[in-house]
Write a structure and sequence with these properties.
Number of helices: 1
Distance between the termini: 126 Å
Structural class: alpha+beta
CATH architecture of the largest domain: Beta Barrel
CATH topology of the largest domain: OB fold (Dihydrolipoamide Acetyltransferase, E2P)
Radius of gyration: 36 Å
CATH class of the largest domain: Mainly Beta
Length: about 140
């Protein structure tokens, strides 16, 4: 009696198909888990970036309004020249005036204080609301 090769062939095809489907399901499972890990990592990175960006703010409040006095002079070269106030304590502020001011002068300045950039460095800036010339 000859063995039935067609039956064996059919059994082999079914089992190999089942194995391939099992491998496919395993690969899909690993892929889904990998995507979930990356999704969790991406969400955590977005939350961290949002927190870092939200901490750097330019909120304006009454506490930001200050009054200082000192010598005002123009520093820097055009087009980067700016009015700079230097106090007796050697503090330096870049002033933003609404109109041109004659310098050098000794002024008392009231305005909104904020951190800005000038000449590639961070400086305290004052947006001038009022100023008064002082007698020397």
């Amino acid at each position: 009696m000859k063995p039935d090769y067609t039956l064996r062939k059919q059994l082999r095809m079914k089992s190999s198909g089942a194995r391939k489907a099992g491998v496919w399901n395993t690969c899909c499972t690993y892929s889904i888990r990998l995507y979930q890990k990356y999704a969790i990592f991406a969400c955590a990175a977005c939350v961290l970036a949002t927190c870092l960006v939200s901490c750097t703010t330019d909120r304006v409040s009454e506490a930001d309004t200050i009054t200082v006095e000192g010598m005002v002079a123009v520093r820097g070269n055009e087009p980067f020249a700016a009015y700079v106030l230097e106090t007796s304590d050697r503090n330096t502020y870049v002033l933003i005036f609404p109109e041109a001011v004659e310098t050098p002068a000794r002024l008392q300045v009231t305005g909104r204080l904020y951190l800005g950039e000038w000449m590639g460095q961070s400086y305290a800036h004052i947006e001038v609301h009022a100023y008064e010339e002082l007698a020397e």
